[in-house]
Batch of 2 targets.
Target 1
Amino acid sequence: KRKRKTKLREMGRKKPFRSRYSFSNDKKKFGGNFRRKDDADEGDATKDIDPELELIESKLQRLVTQAKKGDKKDERFGYRRLDSSNEPQLGWLLNMHPTVYSDQNGRIKSGVDYYFLTEEGGRFKVTYPYLPYFFIRVNEGTEVEVEQYLKKKFDIRIAAIDRVYKEDLELANHLVGLQQLYIKLSFFNVHDLMHIRSKIMPFIRRNQHKKEEGPSSYTFTAFNRADKQDDDDDDD
């Protein structure tokens, strides 16, 4: 009995357990499993971020920083960039190479740097912007449908969508001068072109496979079910 009393006394001397976290009555009533509204919003926002697009943006930013470093090196060698504010000059073309630059709106675009030598021995360079592009062919009557889907899906990445008639060697009477209607997709930079091309190619391969199996009444209507179909084309 004495031992039991001493143990009870020692246990009574210990401080009661107190939690470091304080819960209100409502939290205790509903279990205390609560998140702040800011945390919930951040979690929902991260679901919509495409990691592939983040990788493209980081690559483009690195290319822009490298291009700026290259501009400083060119200025050391006397190749200053001419813009619309400078007077026109005449020179011989020495070299050229592709580059990227950021416009006034912060859009990263592709361009080509041309290096010139003047008659007096001076040096200058000019950056000529260009839009990389590729063509896609669709069945007659589906042009509007395809253009609407592309604008809705890749509006930020596509610079322009045009309709162009070009010669198609696959046509039976192409020597007569018959031309095929194509949709020309222009982009701000090469990285956007490669990204959208990778998204479109599974549908093209699927339609080519269907065309080999039998005639199809449409070509790119599979775009309308893009969100419902898987992009895995290993079987194709």
Target 2
Amino acid sequence: LEEELEEEEEDALDPTSSEFVDKTNALLDVIRQAKAGNEAQQEAKESYRDDDVPPPLPTAASARQPRRQPPPFSPRDEPTDSMAKMHAAATSERVTAKEKKQEQAASVEPPKRREESHGVDEQLQKLIDGISVLKHGRRGKPKKRLVQLNQSLTVVHWDTGKDLLVKDITGVRKGLSTQVLLRTGKAKNQALYVSLVSPGRTLDMELASGAERDAAADAFKALMKFNSGTRQ
């Protein structure tokens, strides 16, 4: 056994021998080459990324798909609640101001128009109060009568119980302009006569003066105009 151990010790390389140095250097070269190869592979893996891969070519199926439309506005463009409330408040103020102006314009009647309507009201009120006339009839002499307009402005009546519907009046005439006045009237008094004409009859009246006759004629014309506007 001792002989075998001595032989093995004799066969072992001397660390200082050239053969041992050569084998050690060769082994180190192999290790260095293997390490260099591993480092090269690692660098290649790190340099390889997904975004370096070119996009795939479009296929027939992808070409048929419609392109997505962008949203009408991005979320950041959406109005906030406070902005919406401010806009609604401003709009409401503008509408309210406009309505107030329209109401004021409608309520303010031109001065001339107010005067005209006021005059018509006075004329109709005089007819409602009644006017004293000499009524010329188909028979007999002219008689004193009180001719009045009812409160609903639809009937002209006199104190004998007879009447004439306003809607039936077709005209207001002055002077000797009817068959009744041509028979009973006088030429010298023609400035005092006024007649209401209807299809079935006439109401022929004589006033005390020309001014009163003209006022009565204007009042009856205003009544006709008022009645015509009411029916429209």
